[in-house]
Amino acid sequence: MFKLKSTIIKDLRILLRDKVGISLMFVMPIILVVVVTSIQNSTFQLVNKNRLPIIINNNDTGQASKQLIAAINKIGMFKVSQVSGDQSEKQMTDAMHQKDATLGVIIPANFSVKVSAKSKSIAGKALKSFGLEGDSVKHEAGDIDPLTVYYNPILQESIRMSVQGAIRSALQLVESRETLRSLYFSINEKQLPASLENEMLNNKTAINEIPVSKDGTRTTPNATQHNVPAWTIFAMFFIIMSLGGSVVREKVSGSFIRLKTLPTNYMVGLLSKQIVYLLVTMLQAAVIFSIGIWLFPFFGLPALNLPADILALVIVTVVCGWCAVSYAICVGVFADTQEQANGFGAVSIVILACVGGLMVPSFAMQGFFKSAADISPMHWCLQAYYTLFLEGGKLKDVVNNIIPLFIITLVFQFVTFIGLKRKNLI
């Protein structure tokens, strides 16, 4: 016990001298989690609350185009401004830059005429199917000229798909209104009453959104709940920059050889490093979680809500931290220089983060990368944290994530032992 205590004190002193390593383990993750959460929260705000600036060039003089513009404005997703004149692609691009708009729409000159002709054609076909011959349409109507939508390349594909869906919804509303009016007029030979038109078009079934959680709560997850656990895991594994280098330095300096001459075992030294850096990972989690709880509201970000099962949170954090420590020691044992340990360690952590779902959600992956996610320890760490933070799970709900993570940790420990044997270090 005395040997272990003395070794722990030695490792703590070495750690405290490593100012760069401490900054990488604490300062860098804190900056990262604040910046990434702020950016993602701004993206959520852009999609959910703020309006996308859009300019519309209406080359049509009929009522259908005006109704379309009103429908687009009513959606609540866009901040609409209009420009006049026959705009070319170059002129439309310039107008978007001048008005700082991310979207532009050109409505063709014959839009209202084509919409009216198509609605009358559909109404005539409907009357004919009912056995009623209408006089309103005697020929087939041509297709409506497509709307031209320009977008800024910075818009992500998911946002562009949402924009297309919103514009299609507004276009369908205009076409449905014209079809109803034509059909009503063909049957009754009078205009469709505005009250009946609004009742028919606005009779929509409401949609209730309920987040699914294991504890029955209905708290809507936010950017903080997603990002703080993810980047805490990243911070844990980034201890490789300090721990991996420390193992390499001891090999290069001959500390391993000197330890062989002393009445102790290097396994005591490895256990000491694991205890010291496991405490570091726990401290990292405590610091980042505290920032999410108390500091984020001062930045205008949602506060972090800790899960109800604190014991499960502690156990998951310990297992995640132990896995990160085991991986760092494993890399340090096999690296011949500190540069190798730092270079390989940093790159491998980024790759494991990508594959594990920290940077790209696992459900969005396809093929090989979706299967490879199961190999990344960060994947199991993230799933365990998400079960607690987002789904309101308890300890029994994260067992399926802890077991694979524990197995991966044991694999790292075994590989480390084999590496030490092969290099005659123990």
Q: Could you describe the 3D structure shown?
A:
The structure is a single chain. With about 425 residues, the protein is mostly helical. It has two domains: about 1-45 and about 225-420, no CATH class; about 50-200, 3-Layer(aba) Sandwich (abc type-2 transporter like fold). The chain contains 16 helices and four strands. The protein has helices at about 1-15, 20-50, 65-75, 90-100, 110-130, 155-190, 195-200, 225-235, 240-255, 255-260, 265-295, 310-335, 340-355, 370, 375-390, 395-420; strands at about 50-60, 80-85, 105, 150. A four-stranded mixed β-sheet has the order 2-1-3-4, with helices on both faces. Helix 3 (about 65-75) links the parallel strand 1 and strand 2 (about 80-85). Helix 1 crosses helix 11, helix 13 packs across helix 15 (about 375-390) and helix 15 (about 375-390) packs antiparallel against helix 16.
State the total count of DSSP E strands: 4
- Any low-confidence stretches, pLDDT <50, length ≥5? none
CA-based gyration radius: 31 Å
Task: Give the averaged pLDDT, no decimals.
Answer: 81
Strand content: 5-15%
Shape field: elongated
H and E order: HHEHEHEHEHHHHHHHHHHH
Proportion of helical residues: 55-70%
What is the subunit organization of this protein? single chain
For the largest sheet, list the strands in their spatial order. 2-1-3-4
The total of helices stands at: 16
Task: Please give the alpha-carbon distance between the first and last residues.
Answer: 20 Å
Based on secondary structure, the structural category is mainly alpha
Question: Largest sheet at a glance?
Answer: 4 strands, mixed
Number of domains: 2
